[in-house]
Give the backbone structure.
Amino acid sequence: MKRTKILLTFLSACLLLFIHYPGAAQKAPARLRYAFATGQRVDIKQEETTNDFEENLVEGSKSESSTLKEIAQQWQVVGVTPGGESTIEVKYTWLQLRRRLQPGVVLTLDTRRSAAEVNPILIQLGPQGVPILERFEMIRKLIMDVFVGRTYKMVVSDVGKVKSFSGFDQAWEDYRLKVEKLIPDKGKRAELDALIEAFFGEEAVHKLFSYSLFVSLPEEPAGVGHEWSDSTDFSLQSIHLPIKRNYKLTSVSDTGKSFKIDGKVIFDPPTATEEVEFKIPGNTLTAEISLDPANGTLLAQTYSGKLEFEAYGRQAPNNRRIIHLVSETSGRVLMTTGQPEDRP
């Protein structure tokens, strides 16, 4: 049952990855390309809110939670090949995670401010809140010392295919050296490791850049009505989830700077376990994106979606439904350009 819940949470988290759709800004069909320039600086901010509802029919319980995630990055383009392949230095400037566990109970992790400053509810708890505050502050300092402000590097093609990352392996080595001294017990470190991996783990980084901030553009010229697709495969231990995303350019503004895309995510059935099989009754995903038609740079993106999962016990009588999960997600990505000397 625990594994089932982990998988359902994993699947709902994937929702944010399926609603970022770069596309065309021209009315006439044209080759769509990312066109970075050496020396260009790009500031990125992503804000996302997720509301989850879970019903466990075996235990007879229901739960609701809400999560706000904000990530700020700064990119510096250090080189572009004649074929349009860009090498970009990446820095996380700050991040924030706020989770509402129940009405009136919100916990916050913000790398810019102390745990005590952003969690007055824990101050109000008095001595009972001290251990939680100390743990939050430890996590904040670890993220700041190891991951935030460090320079990473990525190489991306002109159609948005991220070819390589570097720098994250060294960050993880530094993290492990620090956290083993702070929390010697491996079992007690597991929860913290999972939290850090959700932001900076190999799978999380791959998803963020390859399937959120970059999505493959079509090789052929595209205009209004053009359709294309890409696909990927996410894994959780031995369970694989094949995913295909279909895109269709439906409209372009008179100025050519904004357009709307209809998208549909196709989930092939996840690998069933001995305990459970999964169904996806439905999902609705939409996004609106603005591009700079001169160089193909993403300026802004807003998105929203609703995804529903059901789990059925394979050994239960009549394959009885055991879990029902609904996840609603909305957010936006903003990108602004600047000059290299503006970078701190």
